[in-house]
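Margin note: ligand = adenosine monophosphate.
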Amino acid sequence: MSFQSLGLSEALLKAISKKGYTTPSPIQQKAIPPVLEGKDVLASAQTGTGKTAGFTLPLLHILSENPKEKYRPIRALILTPTRELAAQVYANVREYSEFLNLRSAVIFGGVNQKPQVATIRQGIDVLVATPGRLLDLQNQGLLSLKRVEIFVLDEADRMLDMGFLRDIQKVINLMPDKRQNLMFSATFSKDIKKLAHGILNHPVQVEATPENTTVEAITQKVYRVAKGKKTGLIIKLISDGNWKQVLVFTRTKHGANRLCEKMVKSGITAAAIHGNKSQGARTKALAGFKSGRLRVLVATDIAARGLDIPLLPHVINFELPNISEDYVHRIGRTGRAGANGQAISLVSADETSFLKGIEKLIGEKIEVEIIEGFEPDPNASTEPIKPGQNRQRRNKPRNSNSNNSGGNRNSRNRNNKNNSRRRNDRRN
Ligand code: AMP
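Resulting structure:
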């Protein structure tokens, strides 16, 4: 199948060919036709499948077909959970609309609102936004969603994880009832289905390659190791293998910082990316990693979500996630665009039950290796780490706000119930 046969306009085909895409990805083949027909779409797709172009291309096509007005109201709203994802989606919108007479903007928290407001004031057709800043500006009367024709909810599952449900509902109430809705989610929990039911109108359901197929393209390995020897082991693996581009996942923001410091001390260029870092610091870290200046990027799950880093050769789980599906998301960062990748997990005794859960989900046993000098502790307890708990800090008083960026969904949801949008802004 070609992009031409999908019925996209010449201006879009030109932009697609400038990007170097020759064939639509499976999610694009499945999602673009129903979106062009004006239907609501519920898509199961995670980052790396080409989902962004899957909704952006037909959306731009529809907007550019309709007569233009001199004063441009916001006609399409793309809502994303994180600032990074918003910035990436916006970059895509800009590229694909290069040869169209459409204007776009991106808004997210953590940065000055003035330039964002100035762009919106000039009139834009497409707005990419995170919920917090969108509602802030709306409350200040600085934007209106009354003319939105197409609404895209990207990474809906992560939106719910981050406690954005009420914000999403508020946003929906600000838009006209008659509109086209597109919802993308990597997973489909009961809550997601409920949300979809509330937003979408007789949606066409489309699915990208099942997650297991992604997993098959990746070499997975587990190193059983004593908890206290993980840092030494990860430094040894990266140094001995002379790995150049490694994404490392930790459960907590503090854990990410600590590990990063130790790597830097042992001569490995590294930066941490998580919710306590300023937007500038995160953008800089990501740019450094992409350019090859940094060998290691240490991230928490939420911070890493949606990062557009193609062809990542190595992903290391410094700690296993306690949600098995997060493991699939993490390792999906490697082996993208058809290239093979290696996913390594350092597993201590207290993570045994997480490993079992992951193996059950992916339907296979992961190869285990033990490195001399980094053996597991035979006396360590196999009792799992409690949700939101960081063993190494358990004696210190815990701030309910800190340290759970890569933590447990339930604890996040519980915490979120009574909290304000500002907290979500800080976390993502
Ligand atoms: P996404 O899942 O939207 O984050 O896209 C993942 C990566 O695939 C991005 O780097 C896109 O630029 C790239 N991509 C999207 N569509 C295609 C395509 N049809 N052919 C090749 N690469 C693509």
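The CA atoms of residues 15 and 98 lie 7 Å apart.
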